[in-house]
Amino acid sequence: MPEPAYVKIAGDLTRQIRSGELPPGIQLPSLSEIARRHGVSEIVARKAMELMQAQGLVRSQPRRGNFVAERPNLVRVSPERQMETAEATFHHESDEETQVERHTEEVRATAELAEAFGIALGDRCTRVVTRASEGGRPISISDTYQPLGIVGVDTATECEERLADRLPVPSHAEWLRSTPGDLVKTIHQKFWDAEGHLIMISDISYPMDRYDAFVFRMALKRQNSQGGSE
Amino acid sequence: MPEPAYVKIAGDLTRQIRSGELPPGIQLPSLSEIARRHGVSEIVARKAMELMQAQGLVRSQPRRGNFVAERPNLVRVSPERQMETAEATFHHESDEETQVERHTEEVRATAELAEAFGIALGDRCTRVVTRASEGGRPISISDTYQPLGIVGVDTATECEERLADRLPVPSHAEWLRSTPGDLVKTIHQKFWDAEGHLIMISDISYPMDRYDAFVFRMALKRQNSQGGSE
DNA sequence: AAGTGGTCTAGACCACGTG
DNA sequence: ACGTGGTCTAGACCACTTG
Lengths: 230, 230
Hints:
Two copies of one chain form a homodimer.
Chain A: H1 5-18, H2 31-38, H3 42-54, E1 58-61, E2 65-68, E3 75-78, H4 86-93, E4 98-108, H5 111-117, E5 124-134, E6 137-147, E7 156-166, H6 170-176, E8 184-193, E9 198-207, E10 213-219
Parallel strand pairs in A: 3-10
Antiparallel strand pairs in A: 1-2, 4-5, 5-6, 6-9, 7-8, 8-9
Chain A binds a DNA duplex through helix 3.
């Protein structure tokens, strides 16, 4: 009936983080230290840390320690961010130095890409890999595809984002330096132009500790409706 | 260097689920059975199960077993769902019998509610608690607040949803029968009318295994922009 | 009575980062 | 050399469900 020890420990630490007692970026006590303080075994302390990781409050660095997330209250807002470059977005979010690097290459449309864009299998597409880091820490990586000749989303009028928690693909895991078994926040984006043509798709991964929440703002098109929440 | 045993086990099971070999709702082998089959200790099997739980593929019922999620590919789409009642939404999502129960009461505005709605502290508000279940399994619970006199979101033209993974509040945890330490998907909704007045806020919780992903469809308002992904 | 998952203990080895 | 987190073992007790 009482709450488990690891929930209590996580709650204690969460309170200290939210109150500012444990500021962003600081190293938490080691697992053995937490275990000692709370009079439990190290496994329990680890479980508490895993719970906080899943909430994005803590980032674990193997052989270094556990650290409070750099921006425990940072929120990712859509579609505001679609209206600006990655550089501008991260510049707004951050005061630390942000690095964005891009690699562009031409690829042949896979079956999936061909169907999405309504082009032929093997048609040429542009692939852009964008890696962003802040203060040396990786904060995002994305894989973007467009039919050859279309660049950017200036002509897009509609956008869809699909948010899920997934094991990262190896290339994303490597950049984000995630430990095997660590989940990441993934966003699959699609952009359409006014004619209804899909002009870009993108797969983005964020470390769990990057954002506290994901916000989406939408206009409601009136129909017959009662509306409600659930 | 090699991937940990628990990742491999989770991958094996995930493949069996995605391929349909392990159909939705079925009970997985017990932890001791999984451990035996893979030649590892039970702790490792449990860790694999936790990884799958975090992805929403598996639901764990204490003292019963682990079960494949009922709808491993179900997606929650916004804002479509805001246009219809909870009953209609769940009816579309499901062929099983869905139960929705509502409790309405009048409450006094807390400081938070008063500020949100632009009313005075202690002013009367409507609170609606909505609980939904499907085939006896709880699938959502929400707490909705509106200023007295406003019912529903028929007049809403804008909507915001804030998605995060959180420890549930006790009332939500109880309905969802979540184990202490289990996270839930939370959505904090806000609705505004054409005059820019906030007319409804709602806190919704879903079990981790309810949805595979959350989809948001948004119109892009053109400005000066370069656009891009990150 | 047997089986199950949840919690917890008390160890162990490894690889790597830091001093 | 030491501390760290990641992985793993081999047990234990509890509370509850199922047969």
